[in-house]
Specification:
It is built from five helices and five strands, in the order βαβαβββααα. It is of the alpha/beta class. It has one domain: Collagenase (Catalytic Domain) (3-Layer(aba) Sandwich). Strands 1, 2, 3, 4 and 5 form a five-stranded mixed sheet that branches. Helix 1 runs parallel beside helix 4, helix 1 crosses helix 5 and helix 4 crosses helix 5. The longest helix is centred in the last third of the chain and has 17 residues. The protein starts with a strand and ends in a 12-residue tail after the last helix.
Length: 167
């Protein structure tokens, strides 16, 4: 059972106004993922809002892809499978999630849903990466991760009627 979750939220962009309630939604989303995954102990995660230029530079530096993306995750899991622990709070430091707010706006228009749903999806996606999920190889791992994302969105009250596959 999750003891306590600290979510550090930083806004490093000026292009998109962050609506009231988004930060609380992000905290609820992190907690929903940890509960669903039966995470044990306290956790800490950092989420940063950036613009397309900033996330593109990170994507190029860390993934060798010179394009903006919607979300990047930087897990802090060590080689032994454990996370770094904050000595003051005794929380496991899961890592960092970086979200492009410009991409959030683009994707709300593409998929026809709210900014709240898009941010919740990206936070859930990022959290699952921090916990070790990987969809890059496709197949069953991708499907399993997608099912977990949809379950989190359901827990948060978002309908799964809209697909993320754009025909």
């Amino acid at each position: 059972m999750v003891d306590k979750t600290r979510v550090i939220i930083v806004n490093r962009q000026k292009e998109v106004k962050i609506p009231t309630g988004i930060r609380m939604l992000m905290r609820r989303c992190c907690n929903a993922v940890l509960k669903l995954e039966q995470f044990k102990g306290s956790a800490e995660v950092s989420i940063t809002f950036v613009d397309n230029d900033y996330i593109q530079s990170l994507n190029k530096q860390y993934r060798n892809k010179d394009v903006p993306t919607d979300v990047l995750s930087f897990p802090m899991k060590k080689e032994d499978g454990n996370y770094e622990v904050d000595p003051e709070s005794n929380a496991q430091i899961l890592g960092d999630i970086i979200i492009s707010m410009q991409k959030v706006i683009e994707q709300t228009e593409i998929y026809g849903h709210s900014m709240r749903r898009e941010v919740a999806y990206l936070v859930a996606h990022g959290m699952l990466h921090l916990l070790g999920y990987d969809h890059e190889k496709g197949g069953i791992e991708k499907r399993h991760m997608r099912e977990r994302e949809e379950r989190v969105l359901d827990l948060l009250g978002f309908s799964n009627a809209v697909s993320y596959i754009n025909d």
